[in-house]
Amino acid sequence: MEQRRSVYMDHAATTPVRPEVVEVMLPYFSEWFGNPSSLYALAREAKEAVEEARGRVAAAIGASPEEVYFTSGGTEADNWAVKGVAAASRKKGDHIITSAIEHHAVLHPCRALEKQGYRVTYLPVDEFGRVEPGDVEDAITDETILVSVMAANNEIGSIQPVAEIGRIAHDHNVPFHTDAVQAIGAFSVGVDAMGADLLALSAHKFGGPKGTGALYVRRGTRIGTFMDGGAQERGRRAGTENVPGIVGLGRAINLAVAEMPRNAARVAAMRDRLIRGILETIPDTRLNGHPIERLPNNVNVAFRYVEGESILLSLDALGIAASTGSACTSASLEPSHVLTACGLPPEHAHGSLRLTLGPGNTDADVDYVLAALPGIIARLREMSPLRGGA
Ligand SMILES: *Cc1c(COP(=O)(O)O)cnc(C)c1O
Fold this sequence. Notes:
Elements: E1 7-8, H1 19-25, H2 41-61, E2 68-71, H3 74-88, E3 95-99, H4 104-115, E4 119-123, H5 133-139, E5 144-148, H6 162-171, E6 176-179, E7 198-202, E8 213-217, H7 243-281, E9 285-287, E10 298-303, H8 308-317, E11 320-321, H9 337-341, H10 346-349, E12 352-356, H11 363-382
Parallel strand pairs: 1-11, 3-4, 3-5, 5-6, 6-7
Antiparallel strand pairs: 2-8, 7-8, 9-10, 10-12
Helix pairs in contact: 1-7, 2-7, 3-4, 5-6, 7-11, 8-11
The protein binds pyridoxal-5'-phosphate.
Residues 73-75, 78, 103, 105, 150, 154, 179, 181-182, 202, 204-205, 213 line the site of pyridoxal-5'-phosphate.
C-alpha cells in the first residue's frame, strides 16, 4: 500500500467551508458587526449584506428574494415547512404525505405531529429508493394539507421524481415541500420546475458554514411563524440574523450553482470508478440506491457478512473519512430506515458503506480507497460471526 493519505469522503455529512466563503464572512464578525435592525451606517452595512445574500439564494433556485427566509440550517427549514404548514392548515385538514426515506429533519416533525392528532402517510419506495408518483396521487384525500418528498436522498443518493410529484400535488391544490439539502450544487434546482411551494437548503452541504440555511416559501403559501419575537425575516422567523453565516451562504450557493456543471461531471466520473472498482474486486457486494438517478457524488455499497462500523474504523486507521449512511444515526445500532425501506435485508443493511465525494477529491483519493477496501473487507469477513456456513 502506498503512503498514508488523508481522504475526506463524507461530503453528504458536511463539506469544508471554501476559502472564498470564509473571506467574505470575516468582516461581518469584526468591522461590520452591526445589528441589521439598527439605524446607523454600520447596521445598514449588515442589512445590505443580508439582503444581497437573500438575492443570491433566490437567484440560485429561481425564486424572488421575498420568498426566501434564512434559518439556522436544513433541520430548521424542514421543521418549519412541515409544522408551519400543518399549523396553518389545521382547519382544512389533518393529513400529510411524505416518504419513508426522508431525512429525520422531516420524519421526526411528522411523528411529532402524529402525537398531536395529525395523520401521516409514509410512502414506500422501490428497491432503488424511489417514490412512485402514482402513489402520491393515490394517497391524496380532501384532508391532505402537505406533500413532502426530498429532492435527493442523503444516504443512498437516489434522486426523486419531484417535478411529477409537485405537479400531482398542485392538481389537488396541496402545497408541496421538498428537502433539497443534498440537491444544491449537484443538479439544477428550480422551484418552478420542481413545482415546489416550500424548499429547504443548508449552507454546510455545499461549501458554506454550518448553522445557516434557508426555507423558500412560495408567495401565498399558508404557513405559521417559526419563531416569535422581533420583526426579522418579515416577522416570521424572529431573532437577530446570523449575518456572517448568511453572507457565507450567499457566496457559497452562488459558487456551487455556477460551478455545478463542471463539478458534477468530474465528481460523477470518480463516483463511477469507485462503484465499478468496488463491485468488480469485492465479492458479495451490491450497490444501494438507483444506478442512474443518483447524486453525482454518492457511492453506497452493501458488503455482506460485515458491520459497517468495523469498515469505518479500518478506513479511519488509513486516514479515510466515510460513513455508514446518515451521520445522525451513526450512534445507533438500528439498521438505516432508508436501506430498510428499500427492502434490504438487515445483514446487508448493517454492512453498508457510504462514500460521498466533493470537488476537493482527486483520482489519487479514489485509487487509495480502491486499494484499501478489498483487504479490509476480506479481513473483516475472516473474523465475522455473521458469515455462517460460508
Ligand atoms: C444534512 C441534511 C439535513 C439537515 O441539515 P442541517 O443544516 O445539518 O440541519 C436535512 N436534510 C438532508 C437531506 C440533509 O442531508
